[in-house]
Amino acid sequence: MEIPLNLTHHCIETASKREYERMVRQCFKISDDDNERMPLENKISALIYFLENTDFSDLRNRCNKIYSDKKDEKKADLIIPQNFKDMYVCIDKTTLYPIWKNK
């Protein structure tokens, strides 16, 4: 599963929150028996996990280093394997593994 994030005007945390909000709104518009609903709900669950457990201070710093000299459109992909703890961010062919908060 993959979730594209636009980092042109926002940090990775804000972009993730906005994508989460967009998906939740979309989910309310889809009927329960629609084939798109289950994959969308899975992506929402992954974003919730990502937003609640990621050390965004660290991830933001690493994203900024990659994009420090770019002024055009900045994109990232949140790659979500079956186990959410293995998810990572891809930016310009660079893989960033989030540091998870201690619980």
Relative strand content:
15-25%
Low-confidence stretches: none
Calculate the terminal CA-CA distance, rounded to whole Å. 25 Å
Shape: globular
Structure classification:
alpha+beta
Q: What is the radius of gyration?
A: 14 Å
Q: What do you see in this structure?
A:
The chain is α+β, with helices and mostly antiparallel strands and 103 residues long. The protein is 46% helix and 17% strand. It is built from three helices and four strands.
List keywords for this structure.
3 helices
Question: What is the gist of this entry?
Answer:
Helices cover 46% and strands 17% of the residues. It has 103 residues and is an alpha+beta fold. Strand 2 (75-79) and strand 3 (88-91) form a beta hairpin.
Ordered list of secondary-structure elements with their pairings:
Elements: E1 2-6, H1 12-29, H2 37-53, H3 56-67, E2 75-79, E3 88-91, E4 94-96
Antiparallel strand pairs: 1-2, 2-3, 3-4
Helix pairs in contact: 1-2
